[in-house]
Write a structure and sequence with these properties.
This protein is an alpha/beta fold and 346 residues long. It folds into 2 domains: 172 residues, Rossmann fold; 168 residues, Dehydroquinate synthase-like - alpha domain (Dehydroquinate synthase-like, alpha domain, Up-down Bundle). The protein has 14 helices and 11 strands. Strands 1-2-9-6-5-3-4 form a 7-stranded mixed sheet, with helices on both faces. Strands 7-8 form a two-stranded antiparallel ribbon. The longest helix is centred in the middle third of the chain and has 18 residues. Bound molecules: zinc ion.
Length: 346
Amino acid sequence: MQTVQASVGAYRYDIILENGLTGRLGDRLSERFRPSRALLVTDENVWRLYGPRVMRSLEAAMIPAESLVLRAGGYPATLDALRELAGRMNDLRLGREDALIVMGGGSLCDTGGYAAWNYRDVVRLVQVPTTLIGMADWAAGGKTALEYKPGSRMIGSFFPPTLTLVDPQTTATMPEREFMSGMGEVIKCGCAADAALFHLLETLSGRAAIEARMEEIAWRCLAIKGPLEGPARQKVMLGHSMAHAIETAQRDRGLLHGEAVGLGMLAVTRHGERLGLATRGPAERLPDCLRRYHLPLAAAVEPQTMQARLHALGSSLDIAVPERVGWTRVHHVDNAFVMDAWFGGL
Ligand SMILES: [Zn+2]
């Protein structure tokens, strides 16, 4: 078991990582606080895999619990899902002694956080991310959002959970491509802030070997981002400004987030080296590492669409560039940097 302290503003909360935690969730919860009741919110797919196990663990810990199982797919990100969840919270009259446990992928946890943030009474939010990208990235930070249409990121806020519980073994049931996309985010953590993690990733081979080290991998990623606040977080958002521009501008619209992060990180690293901002290490080692996890090294992107996306962000931006593996510096650059990084040669 590993614990990471994360912060949202002045508020601190713990992220607990433990293999097999979904079967002991009730115990882990009662060790921290004893809710009078719990509402477990998840989607059909996650429920099928882990729902009954979590409910049994709550029962064993003598925490009366109800469940709400949302339709799988894009539904948890919709206003209808928010209405369904808020309705249930209201019907149950959840209060400050109760726990709202949201278990699943990013959009479900975002909507659950959004509901907790807007709920009139105080309710203790417990996040249980089940995807690798959740464990490596957004589980630290307290982001809540309502993605009312694909790609929208502006409706939401930051609301700290009371506790975040991570069972690294839940990544074992992820489809191959989503899993490897999550590894894109993990490689970013290593390249930006943890040279030892990056080195480990350069030596692992095959999914079983990765799974065997997953608790350590997820812990190292969360330990990087958890304590960081505001602008300091920019240092570890390597490749993300590029990734958002690529995600908007890709012609085939088929890239997953971690794949776009891998491409963005590669472009920024190579361009940084061309400009003399970095030593030769990262740009040489990144392509092999990305290839090892079957991540793309190229994608078709419309220059006009990327330019328009950058234009919408303003004339300049802060961008993290690796000086060496495990260490970045944030540079304030104009938009041409991103265009040159991408079109100057990947
Ligand atoms: Zn990301």
